[in-house]
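Sample intake sheet
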Amino acid sequence: MQQAYSNLSDGLGKSASALVRTPLKKYQYGASAGSALATAVRGIPAAAIAPVSACASAAHSALLGLRNSLDPEHKKESMEKYLGPTQTHNRD
C-alpha cells in the first residue's frame, strides 16, 4: 500500500508541476505572463495523463501486494527468479 500511495503521490505531483510550478518559475525568472500561460497550456496533456498513469501504477502495486500477501509461495518464487536464491533469504 505504501508503494501504491507513493505512485499516486508522484503522479499528482507531476501533474501539479506541469500546470503550476513550471509556469510560475518561468514567470518569476522574468518571462511575460503570456509566455508563462503558454507554458501552462503546453503542460495540459502531460498534466492530464500523469494522474491516469499514477492510478494505474498504484492499482498495480496494490494488487501485487494483495497477491503477495495471499500467496506468499508465489512471492518467494518471484523473488528467487529475479533476485536469486541467496537474496531471497535476506528479504524475508
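Comment: The two ends are 18 Å apart (CA to CA). The chain has a mean pLDDT of 82.
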